[in-house]
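Input.
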Amino acid sequence: MRLAGWPSALDDPRRFHAIVFGAGDYRQPTEDRPPPPVLHPGDCLALGPLSARIEALFGHSRFATLSFDGTAEVIWAGLANHGRPIQYAHVPTPLALWDVWTPIAGPPVAFEPPSAGFVLDWRSLAQMRARGVRFVTLTHAAGISSTGDPELDYLLPLDEPYSVPAETATAVNAARARGDRVIAIGTTVVRALEAASSRDGLVRAGNGVATGRIGAGTKLQIVGAIITGTHEPGTSHHALLGAFLDEARLRRIDAELAAHHYRTHEFGDSLLIEREADHVQGGLVRAS
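Output.
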């Protein structure tokens, strides 16, 4: 079972959306995993030391909401000790929790690493600051990138809660007022900032849920450039890049990446994409 999203509070460990699989492990590509046993609302599940109950199914055998039994402390401990990070089949050895915790990460709210953050560490941030780059953060519950089923993948990304600190909203709005550029570290940051923006183009501080899909035809209000991992065409992450570049340019990028054997998504390679017709200077780096 892969925990896939928060149906309620940002960090409530009692209830989750989840994708359910049949037998297998990380050595099998997600799309090759067999279907799970037939599940019904009310079914009880034994997940290592934890027990959970199916609350609801969403018209698909893999997609469910479940609730864990026990206190928050017991559930967090069970997830940390028994759970395993989601990983891809091309990574040969099992990953530990610290392998997927990005160097500048804060609270444990992501379901897969906001992997663009792997390009940053505190030394690189210090070097950026010395060059006049302002760095601020937000929290975003980055969801999973693949469910193993095309029908469900079409629904991605799922709704994702976020929290924008007042300091971050103030810094972003001040940068845009000066004509400086806002650079998002990863697709999840783009989604959070755009969801937190109002019609007047200002970012609002506070908690919210990113529900919209960003892609070709989306007019970005806040973000002028993105540092991103490389993503496969057809995925929701790749579709988001269509808000920065037209289809022809994205196809050229995809062809170059394939020709030079770049790795996609987590633990892969990264690139900087600037929004077309975005002629601003300066910089503000954002990170999840």
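The two ends are 25 Å apart (CA to CA).
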